[in-house]
Amino acid sequence: MFRIVSSLVFVFVGIAAFAQPQPEKLKQVADGRLQEARASWWGFDAADSTKSLQAAIDSKVPKLIVDTMPTPWIVEPLRLTSDQEIVFEKDCIVQAKRGAFKGKSDSLLTIVSQKNVALRGEKGATLRMWIDDYHAAPYEAAEWRHGINIKSSENIVVEGLTIADSGGDGIYLGVAKRGVPCKNIRIADVVCDNNNRQGISVISAEKLLIENTIMKNTKGTAPKAGIDFEPNHPSEVLIDCVMKNCVTENNGGCGYAFYLVNMHRSSTPISVRIESCVSSGDASSAFAFSTGNAPDETVRGTVEVVGCRFEKSGDSGIFVRSKPTAGVALSFDNIVVDRCGGKPDTPAIRLTAGVHDESPVGNVYFRSVSVIDPTDRPFFDYKDGTRFGLGLENVDGTIEVDRNGRKSLHKIDAAWIQERFPVRVLKRIPQFELSGVPFVPLREQSGDDNQSVPLLRSRNRGEFWFYAEKGSPLRFTFQQGQVGRYSGEERKVKFTAPSGKGIPLPNLKFKEDTDYQLDRVPETGVYRFNVDVGANWVGLKKTNRPVVLAGIPRDVHLISTRGEFFFFVPEGTKEFGVRVSGEGAERVKASLFDPSGNEVWSADDIEEVVPFEGSAPGVWKIVFDKPTHGTFEDFYLSLVGIPPLLGFSPDLLLKP
Fold it and tell me: Which one of 317, 347, 385, 544 has the fewest CB atoms closer than 10 angstroms to its CB?
């Protein structure tokens, strides 16, 4: 009896660990006699079923059933094919192989340039990865290890599945070929849980329907939204995109995010409708919307938000940034904003103009919006972060405010806006014309040894100007630092001589120092070091020659930078301006000292633009520090009427 029981146990364990292929069944599939097959016919190995499951997919059987096995289907990245329905049985689990997925864009399931693919999950069917593993060695930091990666594909259905723990998005809808969007996509009854970057990312889609879908617990790499509509190129589209009866919940970023700054006036007008959806407990805004602002940099179209409820978000329930009146028409109909804004001064509804905006913010309509907020604070706010002042235009509607049962109705129109948010007028001082102006050191240099400089973190990109004489050595050290959990990589550097001739330099490393050295420079004059670091920052650490950070083409964009920095006002300057601004809840403290060392201006908790005008020539000092209130992260400095060059010490400055 003991031997029989042992034998039975051995057989059971064997079935759990391994299933043999069934050649006769496979032959019938290959001959076309069977239009439906089970994945286990190709075999099952509890340690790694990649080959068998990929072979089942590659058979092109019209209907493939992925069986529920005693253990998950452990797989490396799988690629799907056209004209196939895949059904995942009740409680079936397809799980990423641990230690695999080393490629930055290795996704669990990938659909590229395919048609007529359906992924259907029965109750409990799950696609699962290993989110925490991908944030540590031996993995390179990346945000593209998606659960389901769909690019330039048509007639795709994803329904009834839970997609969890990916190293990127639960579902990604993008392009494999420029100009070819995902088309006719339906996502229904899906749960995207605990993914790294987004529950769902929509990069380019035409005729998209997402319904009865939950996007929750996104954490890891920004933006960390429930869903993010974010085209990467003006040619990409958001046409006839509809969400119905969806929920975003407890995400590390926004619930419903629209980041449309890469779309332009040349882009196809967008059309999106968010209907009967909920955001609950998302850490940032429940609904956030941003576009380009300049006339040629803003997309047109319509976005309708209807019958939705936004509750308990950490930031404003509705946040609209930089959207100009000539851009998308954005409307909110029958919306409830309930107890949103985790801080006492955060309004339920917030509109802002960014530092580089050129057009008034507007074309936003609130039709029967209800704000429930027990905290006594403004329910609506507008912040103007521009250098010269812009107002709101074409913003109207009705907003009812419920404060602990006491209700008030507010009619939003031009008069209401003007009374509360009058246009702030700043003196317009022309920019200093740099074209054709040579620059030289302000002071004579004493030696060639490298010296450390205060760490000035330039966000997104940096252009640094070095002065060197022909035949002399030029040495400097840069660092590329990480912001939050944004991914990073080595970045190409553009380095040009005074004549404009390019000089090759090694890539800028990520999260470590990069040393550069030219033993003998070929010309006398200004050498320009230019690098784009994406969402991260670049900072100079050491130099042996005069150097400045150039605030071109617009402003100096800094992040978490403290310390003393300097700029030069040439003789004969009639007037110049210094503009300092924060970004939303991100603020800074700044103080300004004239050439005699006297403090002439200081401001704390700077959010909107704070201006200063002066005329005295010489070396000025500006000091940045943490604000008393708010977050110390992104802020901007604009120097107008003088060379927009920020220096690290008076001895290293350049002058025209």
Answer: 544
CA end-to-end distance (rounded Å), the chain: 98
Backbone angles phi, psi at 57, to 5 degrees: -65, -45
318 phi/psi in degrees, rounded to 5: -125, 125
Q: Which pair of structure tokens corresponds to residue 413?
A: 């129109």
Q: What is the mean pLDDT of the chain?
A: 93
Tokens 């009146």, located at residue: 325
What's the pLDDT band for 532 if we cut at 50, 70, 90?
Answer: very high
Beta carbons within 10 angstroms of residue 433's beta carbon = 8
CA distance 195 to 130: 9
pLDDT tens track for 348-371? 999 999 877 889 999 999 999 999
Q: How confident is the model at residue 509 (pLDDT cuts 50, 70, 90)?
A: very high
In whole angstroms, what is the distance from residue 626 CA to residue 282 CA? 27
The DSSP bridge partners found for residue 320 are 289, 351
pLDDT, tens digit, for every residue of 20-35? Answer: 999 999 999 999 999 9
- DSSP string of 498-516, one letter each residue: TTS-B---PPBPSSSEEEE
CA 643/CA 656 separation, integer angstroms? 8
CA distance 97 to 76: 6
Contact 547, 554 (CB under 8 A): no
* Residue matched to tokens 């107008």: 640
- Rounded to an integer, what distance in angstroms lies between the CA atom of residue 286 and that of residue 387? 28
Longest dimension (CA), the chain: 106
Contacts 24+ apart (CB under 8 A), 490-493: 491/531, 491/532, 491/533, 491/534, 492/531, 493/529, 493/530, 493/531
Q: Where are the beta strands (DSSP E) in 322-359?
A: 329-338, 349-353
Full 3-state SS string of 359-409: CCEEEEEEEEEEEECCCCCCCEEEEECCCCCCCEEEEEEEEEEEECCEEEE
Percent of the chain with pLDDT over 70: 96
In whole angstroms, give the CA distance from residue 184 to residue 111.
Answer: 14
CA distance 301 to 518: 52
Answer yes or no: are the C-beta atoms of 194 and 230 closer than 8 Å.
no
Tokens 């998005």 belong to which residue? 169
Give the whole-angstrom CA distance, residue 316 versus residue 331. Answer: 17
User: Which residue in 217, 141, 5, 234 sits closest to 535, CA to CA?
Assistant: 141
Q: What is the distance of C-alpha 497 from the center of its chain?
A: 34
Is residue 15 over pLDDT 60? no
Contact 162, 127 (CB under 8 A): yes
Alpha helices in 324-429 (DSSP H): 414-420
Distances 479 to 244, 457, 538, 547 between C-alpha atoms, Å: 46, 9, 6, 15
Beta strands 247-249 and 214-216, pairing class: parallel
Q: What are the pLDDT digits (tens) for 167-213?
A: 999 999 999 999 999 999 999 999 999 999 999 999 999 999 999 99
pLDDT higher for 187 or 434?
187
Sign, CA dihedral 10-11-16-20, equals: positive
| Collapsed DSSP state (helix, strand, coil) of residue 206 | strand
Going by C-alpha positions, the residue among 151, 49, 174, 57 that lies closest to residue 100 is 49
Closest CA to 162 of 129, 127, 132, 195: 127
Within 10 Å of residue 501's Cβ, how many Cβ atoms? 10
The DSSP output letter for 650 is: G
For CA atoms 587, 593, 594, 600, the dihedral sign is: positive
Q: How many CA atoms lie within 13 A of 366 on its CB side?
A: 28
